[in-house]
Each structure stands twice: as structure tokens, then as C-alpha cells.
Design goal:
The complex is a heterodimer of chains A (371) and B (307). Chain A is of the alpha/beta class. Helices cover 37% and strands 17% of the residues of chain A. The two termini of chain A are 26 Å apart. The radius of gyration of chain B is 20 Å and the shape is globular. Classes of the chains: A alpha/beta (371), B mainly alpha (307). The A-B interface holds A 1-2, 5-6, 46-47, 49-52, 163, 194-200, 202-210, 212-214, 216-217, 227-230, 232-233, 251-252, 364-366, 368-369 and B 2-3, 6, 10, 13-14, 39, 96, 100, 104, 108-109, 111-114, 206, 210-213, 215-218, 220-222, 224, 252, 255-267, 270. Chain A: Residues 39-323 form the ABC transporter substrate-binding protein PnrA-like domain.
Chain lengths: 371, 307
Amino acid sequence: MTASTNMQRRRKCLVAITAALLASAATGAHAFTLEGPPKVAFIYASSAQDGGWNEALEAGRKAVEEQLQVPVAVTENIPEEATKLRAAIDLYVKRGFNIIVGTTYGYSAPMAEAAKAYPNVAFLSASGTENGPNMESFYARTYQGWYLAGVAAGQATKTKKIGILAGFPVGVVNWDINSFALGARSVDPTIETVAVFTNSWWDPVKEGQVAQAILDQKADVLATNLSATSALDAAEKAGVPAIGFQLDMSHAAPKTIQTSVVFRWEQYLVPTIKEIIDGNWKPEEFGAFEGLDKGVVDLAPLGPSVTEETKAKIETARQAIIAGTLDPFQGPLKKQDGTVVVEAGGKLDDAALWSMDYFVEGITGTMPAKQ
Amino acid sequence: MDFLIGWIAIIPNYATPLVLASLGLIICERAGILNLGAEGLMAVGAMSAAIAVLSGGNPWAALVAGAASAMALAFLFGMATVVLRADQTLSGLAVVAIGLGVTGVVGRSYVQKTFVGIPNLGDIFALERDTAVARIVAVQDPITLALPVMVGLLWWWLMRSRSGLRLRAVGENPAAADVAGVDVQIVQLGAVLASGLLCGLAGAYLSVATSHVWVEGMVASRGWVAVALVIFARWNPARALVGALVFGSADALVPRLQAVGADIPVYLMMTLPYLLTLLVLVIGSISGRRSGEPAFLGRIYLRQDKH
């Protein structure tokens, strides 16, 4: 019943971006200019205050409103259907709104249609796949944050077994899991990562139950790649170090929280919308895809049980990723079954990242529906 | 061995909300009222109970709050179907829509707030978790413990008691029951309210006993599983318990096999409960035996139709 709204949780088949990479023509070299005073509108597929994905974007929206002093309107519960979204966009454009921010993967295609119809309106599409002269999709290199979380987990584990639960096996989820495992193995290459998919984006009951399944495997660090806090609640009860996602989840595990991998969309939205207003915005040809360097992905403040040594190791890794001397997916990189993905010295390009459909070496878990 | 203990220990957690909801549906449908609204009733129960705890209430009182508010929604459903004699399928679907919609609006500021819920037996009695049995018992909660007794009592009441017979008579042949002096509408309204109570309790169990948090849509189709479970159980409370354990153990097994990296067809296994339900339906219709479905289920009884 709720599957379609849940699907909007960013990730679905972002693999489709590879198609976009091939299909999209070069965008115009001219900077985009607005007509009339800037007015921004955010459109959400469900409640903006959902405690997860939408709420992270909502924080970005508030920052835009405060820092740029522009009018920002919000509409919620617009389903991921072309006609319904288009009606909302049409209405906004009629009312003089000229910067439209869509917040879900499912808006991508209808937004691209609208972008063609309204060439003087700027469109920003979160976790979208379409780009054009007046449209830019944006997502974050979440795997960079998850690598740091993996370092924290690797430092915290005593059983040398850590666990992570996630939604569906799509590229943007798989890279988080893999990077988490690789971060932990950078501390100790014998660390095993137990990974389980709940096959749902939004089911706190199941997440708690799956967390228990992972804890029963003697994992002594538990991370969640989902929006609900029930896995962290289970970790806190078991006295196991916990790692959250999307927003700072420390309230669910005040004693055992290590950190949360968080989105800071304001780091993308504020400068981009400022560029649009100032008339020097040029949409990225393949979408904006920022990471730790721009601060779009970050770690929430580290928990009380995180040691100084761990803090230093996380900081070293962070600086190395920002400087480009460390890439979580640099070679040698092997799959779960031992086949080599990248030789020593190489690294994965973005297309290979988006289409990641395997676990790396050191992960115990079943990858459903192997193609 | 550890794998087995962990798996067995968690199964009741999966099964309990399904049993509670399907017991409610069985009572309702045995009285002839088709109830497809479980998803909405559970949503209201889950949210109201969470709000009760977050507002400083005792988790046990929260269960009552969850059950009571779902009963209020069930009362609307009862008014529509029993008193105003509206179509039961459509009214049931309306209950789902209302339940999901209302919780989305009312619960807005209670999303994702972790709270302390129902303690498990290990916490209440400070159990040592040294033996396999102790490890399994320690993670159960009092509601789960009470469940077999509830099922037994309900089965006895429905199948053996005089008032249970009256309720079943209303669902089989309301005209005959009417002639025999049973107040059909009162019985049906009572049955609808009972379904609200039990579905609300099932929803409250999800938020207060299992996940200790509320988010919109957290019932996540469990209400529909309960609807299927009623058919699977052929409207028998004891079989509903067995069915819920079967569904629950299949559901609990999938992530546990994933966690040990077993090479299993995940998606296929997740459809298992539904395949089983289909199988029961097919066998029921082929064998020609009575499926257990109340003869007047989903139909509207008007007194002047008496014949």
C-alpha cells in the first residue's frame, strides 16, 4: 500500500542515471537568467516532517529562506504522478514562482517535461536523473560519509563483527554498505560486516526485528541505513555502539551512539539558489553530485563513547577523502566472492558507482535478485 | 543452535500483532460484517498509543488508548455498515483511507520520537539468560504470553458458548437469528467494536511493544496480512494463531538467513505467506468442504427480507 510513497525515498533505481549519462545532450554554455524577482517553491511527496529524507531537505529549505531572504513556499503530499506534479508546478509558475525544487526521484521525469515548457524557470531535482539548460539533479556522495562511519565502527568493535541494515539493494544503498565495510577494514582487515536488507524503506517494526537478527549474529556495532530509529533503540538496549543515517539520531541511542551519516542539503541548496538568483548558474551536465568536500554529506557530532584515537582516525580519513588522496573504492577492490572489481591503482568511475550491484569482500549477507 | 534460538525467540514478536488483528476480524466477520479496515484501525491504534506514551502516559495505559481510539473509528464503520447499511467493502476501504489520513495529520509532530515501551519478561523478572529456554522466554512480553489464553477463551466463547452461537447465527442466517429473538444490529455493532478494540491493540503493540517509535505508515500492510490470515484460518481463532506463527516464522527467517549470507531467493520467500493463503483458498474451493466462511458475510440484512 505504501510502497509507492516509500519508493520516493531517494534511492530507487538511480542506476537510470547511466542512461541519462548517455542520452543527455550537452547543455548550453549560457548562464541561466531568471525573469522577475526570485521566488522558491519546494514540493514534497509526503509530509515534510517525516523524520528522515524529507526532513533533511526541509532543513535545507529553511536555510535558503533565512540566508537568502527570498520567499519560499512549500507543498506537501503531491504524489509521484506526472499529472499531479505538473498541476502543482503550473500553479506555482502562474503565481510567479521561478525556482522549483522537487524532492524525490519520482519527480524527475515530469520535472524535465516542465523544465522544457518553462525555460525561464529553474528546476532542482533531489535524487533525480534528468538535467538540462534550466534543470539540475542533485545527490550526495553518501558513501564518503559511510566510509568514516566504517572507521568509527572498526575502532569500536571487539568481536570483529559489525552489522548494517538497509532498505533495498540499489546502487546508492549498496555503495553505502560497501563503503562502510571498507572503512571498518581500513582499521582491521579481519573485520566482518553483516549486511541485511529489510526490503522496505519505511517499516520501523521490521527494522527493529532485523536489528535483532544482526545482533544475534554477535555483531557488536550496529548501523542503520534507513530513516527510522528503532534499530538504534535496539542497539542502545543491547549496549551496542550505534550509527544512524540522514539526521542526527543520537536521541535514540544517547549512550551508545557513535555518529550519524547526515545530509546537509543547505550546503548545496543555498549556494546553488544564490547562483540562480545572481544570474551565473550553469547546471551540471550530469547533475550535481557532491560529497564531504562541499559538506553536503557529513557526520553528526561524535558520541560520548568515541575515543580520541577514533576521532583522530576519522579526521585523517576525512581530510584524505577531501584532498582526493583516498577514495573508498580505490583498488584493489574485490567482490564478496573474490572476483576483482578494480585492480590496484585504479578506482571506480561514477557510472560504475551508480550501477553497483554487489557486496565487497568482507561482507556477510545475501544480495537479493542477482542479475 | 544459536541461530535456532534467536529465530524461535523472535517469532512471537512477528506473530502477535497479526493474531490480535485477525482475532478482531474473525469476531466481526463471524457476525456477517466484512471488515477490510484493519490497516486503518491498526494505524489509529499505533499512533494513539504512541502519542499517549509521548505525552507522559504509562505504556499499558497507552495500549488502552490505542484500542479505544481504534474502537471510535470502528464505531463509525459500524454506524455506516450496520445502522445505515452501507456497502461493507467500500466502507472498509474508507476506514483504511481515514485511518491512514488522520494519523498522518494528527501524528505529525510525534514522528520519530523514541520512547520507553512495554518491558519484556527478562526486564520485569530480571531473568538470567543462561539456558536456551531462558533466552527465549526473556525476550517475550506479557502480551505475547497472554495471547494463547486469549485465543483459547475466544475459541471457546465463539464455538461453545450460547452468546457465541448467537453471534455466529447472525453471520450465517440473520433472518433466522432475528426470528429466534437475537437483536441482529446490536450483535453486529458489538462485533464491529470488538474488531476495533483488537485491531487497535495490534497497532498499539507495533508502536509501544515492538519499535518504541511512531512514524506515518508504520503498520506497513500488516492489516492486509491479517485480512489474508483470516481467510487462511477459515474464520477459526485457533487456526489464526497457527497461521500467524507460520507467517511470522517465514517472515523472521528471511533476514536471519540473509545475515548468515545464505544463498536464498529472498523475494520468493517473502511471498510465501501469500502463496500459502492462495493455496488454502484453492484447496478449500476444490475440496468442496465448507470453507468456514460465514454464509451471510458481506451481505446486507434488512428485516423485511425475512423469509
